[in-house]
Amino acid sequence: MTRPTPETLAHTARRARAAADPTLDVDQAATRTTTPAAPAVRPAAATPISGAGSLVRSLEALDVDVVFGIPGGAILPAYDPLYDSTVRHILVRHEQGAGHAATGYAQATGKVGVCIATSGPGATNLVTPIADAYMDSVAMVAITGQVASPLIGTDGFQEADIQGITLPITKHNFLVQNAEEIPRVLAEAFHLASSGRPGPVLVDIPKDVLQAPTTFSWPPTLDLPGYRPTLHPHGKQIREAARLMAAARRPVLYVGGGVLKAGATDGLRRLAELTGIPVVTTLMALGAFPDSHQQHLGMPGMHGTVAAVYGLQKADLIVALGARFDDRVTGKLDSFAPDAAVVHADIDPAEIGKNRHVDVPIVGDAKHVIDELIAAVTAERSAGHTADLGDWWTQLNDLRNRYPLGYDEPVDGTLSPQYVIKRLGEIVGPDAIFVAGVGQHQMWASQFISYEKPYTWLNSGGLGTMGYAVPAAMGAKVGKPDTVVWAVDGDGCFQMTNQELATCALEGIPVKIAVINNGNLGMVRQWQTLFYNERYSNTELGTHKHRIPDFVKLAEALGCVGLRCESADDVDKTIAAAMEINDAPVVIDFVVGKDAMVWPMVAAGTSNDEIMFARGVRPAFDEDDI
Questions:
Q1: What is residue 46's predicted lDDT score, i.e. its pLDDT?
Q2: Which residues of the chain, if any, have pLDDT below 70?
């Protein structure tokens, strides 16, 4: 999967600039020019049209095949030309669902996801999915209607300053001033969302601008002074990184979601196998490196494997690729990896050195960085500089053998949630896309499903958004209709956005939902167990005691097939039954025990040195050996 770029808008102009100056390559032409020149492609003759018509024509020209949205007064003019458009509109039941569906679509396909909402509450309902996309660097364009221009600033009916509200959580945003700007603004929005470090872009359009007469021609000329993402890394920094990798005795490749965004997974595997360096993949990077690969230590962080957490903690060199040293990975920052030199490669220079001192900063696209590291490491090896990692692997393999991921069966005979998720992954297989909500089920899904291929794991990582799974799975299934898509959700998360199953039923989007129903807000309850003396304040949901709601009946009311499983003996046949249904959404209510916990665990605010393998069980380490 490669990151999309609007070829007809920008690449032709880059080639023209490169041809005019033979010292520039195509990427340099993009980064050296502040105001793009007119594309070499001759624009089509301008045709009379309304602003709304221009918006829809722009979406068509940008090869948008689907948008998720809900109409309302301010955006309504756009819905009239959309009626006759080749762009498919999926009518969601809540704007939050539209935003998460656009995100899931983008994560599964590598294209830009698009959502549409009206002004005021319609726009503000997009704030959470916009923030979610911003934290996880997802290419999304949110189009909102705005009250008519004369009403802006008057507290008019359904007015909200969505541009101001979303300024901190968008890569960029626009308030369109006149209808003539619409093609250019849309083209710029898509280019910004999908290039460099991806992210959400908001386009707010007043109603009178949508209704105004204008003309449409394509392609427009982009006007983005100062926007120059650096794609190719500096050669000196690459050589220094390769030198450190050849000299290190305890190195680790710390792989983040940026490797997936860059389509760099093949290169990552070549680099890892060339160097023999252990690999850890963050929650956002699962699938970037096969879980089954012998060099994969697993996921680091708060609920990572013991080997991955201590591999980073005791490393003498960390090579971070498209990762950001977030708190869930580092634990208490001032105690994180105290003996490690750090090579940090990221396309966003603002991330480098933000949380951790960096010895070798590398700004560039992860694909180019990894390809050039392979060449530089190969040169080091040709010169006889090869790291001896035998002792390091002996130590790490010992940790893997002593502290594997596992779980205890519930003593009360209830169904184990870990068993359910493990069997789901084994039965469904590595070609499916798994989407998780947030909480215990998310962590178990990251631990007990084996991710062998990129872009098969979607979740809300940075923002931790409950309610993400169902609409994101819907978007992923729209983008990948021939791929099996499972949402692994909790009974708390599921109740936030399950209304989108009505959308799935009516639109023919046969997603499958595994509700891990423990009757509680599970992760919050786990913290209450560990840190609040088992005082369970407001975490019981009633889905066990009162069966409110009854998830099977709810599924049926929403046009889905509803199934229930309450024993280990029925797990396999229930999953198999769901896999046989491909003409309707399926919801399985897995009724599981309430006392299961996610282990290992590094408590918030503590050092990774204090990782707990299980409750009351801290791994034993020989400090002289590690």
A1: 76
A2: 1-45, 621-626
Q: Which of 157, 236, 273, 294 is catalytic?
A: 157
Q: Which of 1, 60, 158, 540 is catalytic?
A: 158
Active site residue 314: no
Catalytic residue among 95, 181, 351, 500: 95
Q: Which two tokens stand for residue 562?
A: 């509803």
Q: What is the pLDDT of residue 373?
A: 98
Query: How many whole angstroms from its chain centre is CA 514?
Result: 20
**Residue among 448, 411, 449, 419 nearest 565 (CA):** 419
Say if strands 213-216 and 47-50 run parallel, antiparallel, or are unpaired: antiparallel
Q: What is the pLDDT of residue 30?
A: 34
Q: Hey, what's the torsion of the CAs at 243, 246, 250, 253, to 10 degrees?
A: 80
Contacts of 376 (CB under 8 A, 6+ apart): 238, 239, 241, 242
In one-letter notation, the amino acid at residue 343 is V
Identify the pLDDT of residue 616.
Answer: 85
The residues with which 485 forms a beta bridge, in sequence order, are: 433
Active-site position among 111, 171, 207, 422: 207
Residue 47: per-residue pLDDT: 81
DSSP state, residue 169: G
- Catalytic annotation present for 95: yes
pTM: 0.91
Secondary structure, 3-state, 341-392 = EEEEEECCHHHCCCCCCCCEEEECCHHHHHHHHHHHHHHHHHCCCCCCCHHH
Catalytic residue flag (residue 207): yes
Partners of residue 336 on adjacent β-strands: none
Which stretch of DSSP H or E encloses residue 313? helix 306-313
Q: How far is CA 30 from CA 86, 150, 201, in A?
A: 31, 38, 20
Residue 594 among the catalytic residues: no
Q: Which of 284, 299, 523, 601 is catalytic?
A: 523
What does the block give as tokens for 284? 């956002």
Would you call 294 a catalytic residue per the annotation? no
Residue of 24, 19, 58 whose CA lies nearest to 40: 19
Q: Which candidate, 481, 431, 426, places its Cα nearest to that of 456?
A: 431
SS (H, E, C) 496-531: HHCCHHHHHHHHCCCCEEEEEECCECHHHHHHHHHH
Residue 606 burial (C-beta neighbours within 10 Å; 0-12, 13-18, 19+): middle
